[in-house]
Amino acid sequence: MTDFLNAVWSGSGFGSLYGLVALGLVVIFKSTGILNFSGGALMAVGGVVAAGLGAQGFWVAAGIAVVAVAGVGAVANLTVMRPLLGRGLFPGVMVTIGLASVIEGTSGLLFGRQPRFLPDPIGVPTFDLPFGTSMSSTLAVALGLSAAATVLLAIAFNRTSVGLQLRAAAVRPEVASMFGANPGRIFTYAWAVAGGLAALAGALLASLTVADISIATFALRAFAAMIVGGVDSLGGAFLGGILVGVTEMLAGTYLGDDFRLPSTMVVLMVFLMVRPQGLFGTPEVVRP
Amino acid sequence: MTQSIAPPHLADPAQPRAGVRRTGLAVLAVAIVVALPLVVSPYWTTVATNAVLAFAIAAPLNLLTGNAGQFSLGNAAFLVVGAYTGAFVTFTFDMELPIAMLVAAAAGALVGFIVGLPSLRLRGAYLLMSTLAAHYILVFAALKFQTSQFGAAGAIFPPLRVAGVDLSGDRSMYFVIAAFAALIGLIITNIMRSGHGRAIEAVKARDVAAAACGISVARTKLWVWSLSSAMIAAAGVLQAYYLGSASVEFYTLNLAITYVAMILVGGLGSLGGSLLGACFVTLVPVVVNHLSEAYGGGGVLAHPHELQTVIYGLIIIAFVLLKPDGLIGFVRSAARRLRNGG
Amino acid sequence: MAGDVVEQQFLSVRDLDVAYASGAHALRGVSIEVGAGERVGIVGANGAGKTTVARAVTGLSAVFRATVRQGRISLAGKDTTRWPAWRVLAAGVVTIPEGRGVISNMTVEDNLRLVLAAIPRRRRPAVTEAYTMYPVLGERRRAMAGLLSGGEQQMLAVARALLVRPRLIVADELSLGLAPRIVTEILDGLAARAANEGTAVLLIEQAVVMSLRFVDRAYVLDQGTVVAQGTSDELRQAGDTTARYLGVADLSRAEELL
C-alpha cells in the first residue's frame, strides 16, 4: 500500500510535468496542425537557463526561463514555422525536429553540457501524507503549478481575443481568417505559450533532478499524455500527463526501473489502437 | 491528388530515352563505387562505407515513407531486430552471414507487418505516434533479449568470414556493403517499375482512390511495411558486423531520425535521392570535424559536436522550407536544362 | 458604365485573373465596381467563378489556394490585391460566406465575439447589438451555433458581419437552402441596416430573380468572365442571351422560381 501510494504521488508529480509539455503540444497541434517534436528541447533548455540563474532562487530563475523560452517559441514561429502552415504532417515534424537539434546544439555552445542544479521552490523537502507515505515538495509544487496553468490556459482560451481566434483556427481556419484572425500573430502566441509551459516543466525538473540539455527525450511521454487526454483537450493533456506519470511510476515500482519509459509507450499504443480520440477529445479532429 | 496514380511511364513520353540515360547513370555509379576504395585513403574508404550502408537503410525507408507515404520513426528498431536476430542465428547455429541476413529479413518482415498494422486504422500524426511507441517497445524488448542472450554489453560480432574467406578488412567490408546496397537498389527499382510500384504510389496518393482503382490498400500497405522492414533488418546485420558489436544504446530515436533526415535531404520517393541524402548527411559531421581541425578549433569550432548538432538541425529546416524536393531536385532540374539546351 | 468615375468607387476590381493551385483557371479579366453605399449583384450559374470573386475581394484567395495572377483590387483607392483577410476586414470589408461560416461547436455568443476580437478594444461594439437586431440570437446565445436552424445560422452570419460596422458586405449565396420567406426577412433586415449606415452590399447569388430585386445593378458572370452587366431593370428586360447564362428561360417571367 505504501509503495503503491508513493508511486501514485510521485507519478502524479512527474506526470504533471508531462502534462505541462503536453499542454504546449496540444495548443500548437490544435491551432496549427503541427505535431511539435521540439517540446523536449524547449523543456530542456528551460531547465538549463533556470539552473544557470540558480543563485536567484527557484522562482526568479524559473520566471526568467519561462519568459526566455517563450521568446524562443515565438521566434521559432515567426521564422521557420509560419511558412509551414497547411503543408501537412511530414514537413512540420521534420522542421520541429530540426529546431530541437538547433536548440540543443546552441544551448551546448552557450551554456556547455555540465549538469546543473536548481534550488527547491519551497523550503520543506517533503510533505507527509496518509499511510506513512510522503511526496516531494517540488513534485507537489509541480502538480499545483500544472493544474493552475491548465486552468489559466482554459480561461485564456475562453475569454481572450487571441484565445477565441485560436479556438476558431483550430476547427475552421478559413473562418477564423475571414473574421480577422491573423495566423502569423495568433500562432506566435501559441508557440510562446508552448515554450513557456515547457520551460516551466524544465525548471521544475531541474530542481527535482538535474538540468541537462540532453534530457529532451524525457518529454516524449508528453506525446503519450497528449493522446491519452485527447489531442484537442487542455484538461485532457493535464490529466493524461498524470495518468501516464502514475503508470510509469507503478511500472517502475513493481516491474523495475527499466520498465518506466516502455510502459508509457505501451499506454500510448493502447490508446492509439483502442481510443485514438483519447479520454476527452472529440473523434473528428483527425488531421490526416 | 489523383494524377499521381497514373504510372509515371505513361505520363512521360520520353521514357525510353530516359531509361537509357538512367541505365548509363547506374553504370557510372557502379563504376565510381567500385573504383573508390582503390583511389582514396582508408579514412575516406570508411566514410564511403558509412555512406553506402546509410543508403542501404535509407532506401527501403524511402520506399515506405517517400513512395507509400507512411511516415515511420521505427527504422532504428528494425535495425536492432535485424542485428539481434542475425547475432542469435550466427552464435546459436553457427550460420554464415547470408543465412543470418535472410533470417533477419524474415524477422524484420514479421515485425514490420505488426508495426504496420496500426496503419490500417490510423493516419498522419496518430500513425507516426504509433511508430514512436513501437520504437521504444521494440528497443525495450531488444534490451531484455540482449540481457538474456548476450549480457549487458550487447552482442560482440566476430570478424566477418564468408565461406572461409576473411572479409573483415576495410576494403572488403566496403565491397560487401556496397554489393548489398546495390542489391537493395535493384530490388527497389524493380518494384517501382512493376505493378506493385503503382499500387504503392496509389496508397500515398489517397487511400480512397487506391481502393477505387481496385487495389487492396490494406494488403499493399502491409506488404510495403514488411518489405521495407525486411530490407532494413537485413542491413542491420551487416551494420552490426561492420561496427563489430550491437548494443541497444546505439539504436536511439535520433538514429531513426537520421535516416528520415537522409530521405528528406535527398528527395522523398526517389532512389537517387536516398543515395544523395545518405552521402550528404554522412558527410556533414566529417566536414565539420575537418573544419574544426583545419582552423585550429577556435570559437564555435572548439565544440565540433555542438556545431554538428546545430548544422544538422539547420540543414533539415532549410531543406523542408527551401528545397522540399531534396538534392535530387537539383539533379532533375540540371538534367532538364541539359536536355533543353542540347 | 462606371469606368470614368473610378475615384468614387469604394471597391474596384480591374482585369482580375485568378487561378487555383489545382490548375483550375477561375477568373479571367473580371472588372467589377461597387460604389459607397451601393447594392450590387453578381449572378451566374454554378461554377461561374462567383465565389472566387468573393474570396479575392475579401483577401481569402491564399487561404483557398488560389492566386491572383493579374489585375488589381482596390478599396477606396488603396491597392489591396495582396492583402490578407484580416487587413481587408480592418479596411471595412466583411463577408457573409457561402455556407454561412458559422463555427458549429462554438456558442452563438463566441461566434459573435470572434469578429469582435479583431476590432480594437476602444472601437469594439457590444455583442448585444446583434441581439437587438435578431432577438432569437440573444435567446440562444449560450447554445452551440451548430444547433441553430439554417435561418438562425444565417441571421448569426448577418449579425456577425454587421457588428464590425462594415463599409462593404460581401454576401455569398445567402439564400442557399433557406425558405423564401426567411430570405426576404433576412435581406430586408440587411437592406435596412445597410441603408441606415451607408454600407455597400455585394450580393453574390445563384438565385437571380431574388437577387435582382434586392440590388441596384448587377454583373453576370459566366465561366470566369463578366458577360453582361446593367441595372436590375436592364438585366430583367434583357433578351435570352443574358438569360441563358443564368440558366433561366425568361427573366421577366421567372418569378415563380423563387
From TrEMBL, chain A:
Biological process terms in GO annotation: amino acid transport
Location relative to the cell: Cell membrane
Chain segments annotated as transmembrane: 6-27, 34-53, 59-80, 92-111, 131-157, 186-210, 222-247, 259-278
Keyword Transmembrane: yes
Membrane topology: Multi-pass membrane protein
Keyword annotations of the record: Amino-acid transport, Cell membrane, Membrane, Transmembrane, Transmembrane helix, Transport
Record's GO cellular component terms: plasma membrane
Nuclease among keywords: no
GO molecular function per UniProt: transmembrane transporter activity
UniProt name for this protein: Branched-chain amino acid ABC transporter permease
Species per Swiss-Prot/TrEMBL record: Acrocarpospora macrocephala
UniProt gene name: livH
UniProtKB/TrEMBL annotation, chain B:
InterPro entries given in the database record: ABC_transp_permease (IPR001851), LivM-like (IPR043428)
Keyword Hydrolase attached: no
Keywords from the UniProt entry: Cell membrane, Membrane, Transmembrane, Transmembrane helix
Membrane spanning residue stretches: 23-40, 46-64, 76-93, 99-117, 124-143, 173-192, 222-244, 250-268, 275-291, 311-331
Cell location: Cell membrane
Membrane topology, record value: Multi-pass membrane protein
Organism: Acrocarpospora macrocephala
Single annotated GO MF: branched-chain amino acid transmembrane transporter activity
GO cellular component, one term: plasma membrane
Official protein name in the record: Branched-chain amino acid ABC transporter permease
The keyword Transmembrane helix is assigned to this record: yes
